[in-house]
Amino acid sequence: MKKWYAVIGDPIAHSLSPYMHDAWFQESSIDASYIPVHLEPSELEDGFHALKKIGVSGFNVTLPHKQAIIPFLDGLDDTARTMNAVNTVVMKDGKSYGYNTDGDGFVQSLFALPVDREQPLLVIGAGGAARGIVHALHRAGFTRLTVTNRTFRRAEELAGEVGAEVMTISQAEAELGTFHTIVQTTSVGLSDNESLPLSVEWLKPGTVVADIVYNPLVTPLLKVASDKGCKTINGVGMFVHQGAIAFEKWTGKTPNQEAMIDSITQKLGGNNVNR
Ligand code: NAP
Known about the structure:
Elements: E1 3-9, H1 17-27, E2 32-38, H2 44-53, E3 58-61, E4 75-76, H3 78-83, E5 88-92, E6 95-99, H4 102-110, E7 121-124, H5 128-139, E8 145-148, H6 152-162, E9 165-167, H7 169-175, E10 181-184, E11 208-211, H8 220-227, E12 231-233, H9 236-251, H10 257-267
Parallel strand pairs: 1-2, 1-3, 4-6, 7-8, 7-10, 8-9, 10-11, 11-12
Antiparallel strand pairs: 3-5, 5-6
The protein binds NADP nicotinamide-adenine-dinucleotide phosphate.
């Protein structure tokens, strides 16, 4: 019997998840469809029960529902519990289980370039995505993590959870040349204007600079970093790998991630800047 999967969010029309998962179902010869479902916050509970009623096998959760979905679920894995956010739900025997694949998806994307886990790595930001990424980097064995954020208290809290260093934005700006890898997780750069999350005067050539924003493909930070001779990674890899981990949880199959990174990059109007 045909299976159904979905992504819920508000807004949702822009989501590339239906394109990605439908392509993977097709290439894996799985009889399934993946649909975008627009749910406003006030509709979340009814929408969740409606998805269960029609027999959805699993779904993704995007903004603004990643925390709000938690009270409706029957179980959470450790990562989702630590992050207090869910981006993937697996339905099994009528019960719903929440996971968060964002952080591990990012770490997989980082390994598109040679990255040394023992070299200093700076995370800019301390929001939802940063939480997943910092915990996943810690689990993956990155031993010299530093967190900086506009709101310093949030950086302190997040760094404290994994024993990372913490810096104010101005300290991080002054020390920028000491980092081997810099990971930009804030929403700065989304609007394709000239804004940067911090001053990059001291950015060294050869530094790996990752930005988890993927639309635009080349954010102002990646543009400046590339001009300074840094190696850059955009957010497409994270998006595809987090989706692939969800797909594996639903189907037990590993989809073709490299081809999907190329395909989504082209869909967004670019060449692959990561390779
Ligand atoms: P969030 O929880 O709202 O966190 C936003 C972060 O951005 C906070 O650290 C916030 O700092 C900072 N920030 C916002 N505006 C700022 C400004 N004008 N100047 C400096 N810092 C600013 O959002 P999120 O869920 O973490 O998402 C962040 C970004 O990641 C979004 O652009 C999203 O599209 C992207 N994302 C990408 C993927 C992917 O698959 N590639 C997955 C998830 C998210 P304060 O604490 O000071 O407010």
